[in-house]
Amino acid sequence: MKQDNYLTIVKLYFIISSIFMFVACAQENQINAEAIKNIKKIEKLMEIARSKSIDVTREESTLWFSKEFLKFANWDEANKDKVEKLFGYDSYYAKDKEKFAEELPDLERQKVTEMLNNAIYNLEKVIDGSVKRRPVNKINWGNIEVANNALKSNGKPVFLFDYFSKTVGAKLTDSSIYNDHLGGIFHGGQRLYEVNMDRAVNPFILNEDGTFNPDKLELITEIPDTNVGFLILWNMGMPQWIHDKEPEVTKGRSLFTGFDIDNPLMRDVWSKVMKKTGQLTKGKKVTQLGYILSNEPHWFSEKGHWTQNFKEMNSISSYTLNKFRNWLSEKYNENIGLLNENWKSSYSDFNAIEIEIPMDKVLRGQPIWYDWCRYNMDRSTEWFTYLQAQLRETNPDADTHIKVMPKMFRDDYRSHGIDLEALTEVTSMIGNDAKTMGGRSFRSKKPEKWEEKYAYWWDEMSLPFDFLESVAPNKINVNSETHYLSASAWKDLNTSPDYVRNVFWLSTLQGMDVGISWFWARDSDGSPEDRLEGELNFFDPALAGSYAGSANMQPQMVNEVAQVYMDMNSFSDEIMALREQRRPLRIFHSETSAINKKNQMTQQFELYESLFFEGFPVGYATEKIINKQDNSIWEAILVYKTEYVTAREFEALQGYLNKGGTIIVDSKESLSLNEYGIKREKVLSNNKGTLIVMDGNVSAQDLKSIALKTINESLPEIVLKEDNGTSYKGCTWRVVKNDDGRYIINILNIGKNNATLNLEFKNGKKANIINMMNGLTLNNTFDIKSNGVLLLEVSDK
C-alpha cells in the first residue's frame, strides 16, 4: 500500500513538472515567435521606407541588435551553468544567481520584442508623414578629422562611441564587433589584466640590454591603419629584470600604477618605451584619439582609505622622500625655521625631514598635510609631463590624455595626488572615465540624498565636466571608459532606455566628444570572451563581476546607445552651438581649500547645483583661468565657503577686480586664510570693479539670487518655468540664437518626476515651438517625462 502511494506521488510530481516545463516552453516560444514576427514586420517597413527614400539607419541598428540578442539568449539558455557562475562573481547578483541565470534568456527576448515594437511604431509614423526626422549623419570610422574643439566626419562635427575592453582576443577587423552598431574605434591595450597586455604600451617591450622585443612590438604595429583609435599605456606590471635591478621599484606604488613614479630606473625604461612607441605609431589612425598616459591614476596617501588594501602608498621610496625634501626647501626658501614653525617640528635641515605615509587623517587642515598633498599633486603632474615629453621627442604632434577619474575632483578626498586642472593643461586632450548611476549604490544601506530629487546620480560627471570645459574649452574630451551603463556599485538588468538617452545626451552637451562604454565582452556566437571563462582571478576584483547585469545582457541598453548617438550626430551642429553657450557665472575653485577642508567639494556642489537649472552652463574660475583667459567671457565670479587660498590665488582675484570685474563673496570668512590657516591681513578692494561681500551664513540659493540679479541683462531671452510637483527644479536647459533669429533650446529632465513646462519670451511674447526631433508643434505649455530629452526650435513669429 505504501509503495502504491509512493508511486502515485512520483507520477504526480512528473506530471506537474511536465506541465510547468510545457508552460515555460510555451511562454518562451511565444516570446520568440513575437520577436521573429516583429523582425519580419520591421524588415517589410524598411523596404517601404527605402522605396520612399527614407533613411532607415536607425532601424538597421535595432534589427542588428535584435538578431544578435536572440542568438545570445539561445546561448544563455543552453549554458545556464556558465551564466549562473558569471552572476555568482558579482556580490549583488550572487545570492540569487540561479534565478537570474534562469530568467535571463527570456528577459533578453522580451527586451528585443519591446525595442522592435518601438521601432515599428516610430517608422510607421515616419512613413505616413506624421513625424519628420533628420537622416543619420553616419560616422566614417576610417576618415575622422581631429579639428579644433571637435571631431569631424564628412565635414560635420561628430560624436564617437564604442565599448572599452572590447571582446578581448577578437581581431580588430571582425565586423561582428567593430561596426556602426557597436562602434568602430580601434585601440591598443585590450588585454589589460593579462601579463602580456596585448596591444598596450608597456615595459615588457623593452629587454634588459636596451633592445626591444619584436613580438611584443608587433602587437602594437600590427593594428590596421584603417580606423580612428587610441593607444593606452599599461602601468601594472613590469619584467622581472626591473625588480631584480631595483629593490625599491614598487615602493609607493598605486592601484593601477605598479611602480614608484620617482624611481630613476623606471623613468629611464619609460623614456625608451615612449620614444620607441612614438616612432612606430607616428601618424597612425590608431593615435588620432591620443595616447592614454595612464589608467585611473591616483596615489591616496591617507590611513584607512580603501586603496590601502591594494598596497597603494603603503610606504614611499627614498627617491620620493628626497624629492619631497627638495620641494619643501624650495617652498620655504631654504628656511628650515619657517617649516619647523609651521610643522611644530625641530629639524636641523631639510635633509633631516621625515614623513609617515600613509598619513593620519587627523592631520588634515594642518601645514604638514597641506604640504604633502600639494607635493603629491605636483609630483604626479611632473611625471605625466615627463612621459609626454619623451613621447613627443619622436612624435612631436602626438595627442595625449589621461584617464583621470572625475571623482578625484568631485569628492572631498585630496590625498590622491591628482590636480585635475594641472593635468588637463599638460595634455592636448581632456581624458576621463566619468561615471553616473541610474539607481542607488549597492553599498548604500538607506536611500541616497540624490534620490529625493533626481532620476539618476549625475553630479560626479556633470560638475567635473563643467570644470574641465572651463579649464580647456577648446580641447577634445575623450571619456575612454564611460561608466553610465554599469559600475561596480550599480547595475540594473532592466535599465531604462530613457536613462541611457538622457545621460549620454547630457554628457555630450557638457563636452564629451568620445564615449567608450564599459564594456563589451560577447563573442559573436554569444559566449563571453575568453578572459571571462574558467576560474576568474583578477588583480582588480571588480572585473570578475562586471559581466553580470552589464550591457552584454541588455539589448534595449546597447540599442539605445546606438540610437542616441545617431540622433546626436544628426543634430551635431546644434549641439556644438549649445555647448559653446557662454558661461556668465564662474564659481571660484581653490585646490588650497579643497586640500585643507573635509567638505569643500560637498559645499561647492550646493552652489553648483543651484545654478545648474538656470538656462546656461555653469563655469569655473581658478587662479590660472583668471590669469590666462579673457576675463570678458564671463560676468561675475562667485566665491562660496572658500576660506583657504594662497597669496597668488588672492592676487588673481584682486587683479580681476582691478580690471573692472565683478566678484560676489558669501562672507568675510572666505579668502581670509592662507594655505597654512594663517589669517590674511589683506582684504579684496573694489578698485575699478564691483565687489559684493554678503553677510555670513548665506545659503547657496541666496548667493545665486544675488548673482542672477547682477547678470540679468546677460540671461537668455527665453524664460522656462517648471512645475514637477516639488519645490526644486529637475530640468537643465540651454539656449542659443541662430543666425536667422530663431532659438535652439535643449531641455533634459534629470528630475525624478515628470514636469509641465512653460516657455515664453522675457518680454512676454508667446513662443512658437517646434520639436526638432519629430517636426511636431508644441504649445507654450507642454510636458516632459522624467529622463526626457527635448530639442526645440523657438521663434516669436
From TrEMBL:
<keyword id="KW-0472">Membrane</keyword>
<dbReference type="GO" id="GO:0016787">
    <property type="term" value="F:hydrolase activity"/>
</dbReference>
<keyword id="KW-0378">Hydrolase</keyword>
<keyword id="KW-1133">Transmembrane helix</keyword>
<keyword id="KW-0812">Transmembrane</keyword>
<dbReference type="InterPro" id="IPR017853">
    <property type="entry name" value="GH"/>
</dbReference>
<protein>
    <submittedName>
        <fullName>Glycoside hydrolase family 42</fullName>
    </submittedName>
</protein>
<feature type="transmembrane region" description="Helical">
    <location>
        <begin position="7"/>
        <end position="24"/>
    </location>
</feature>
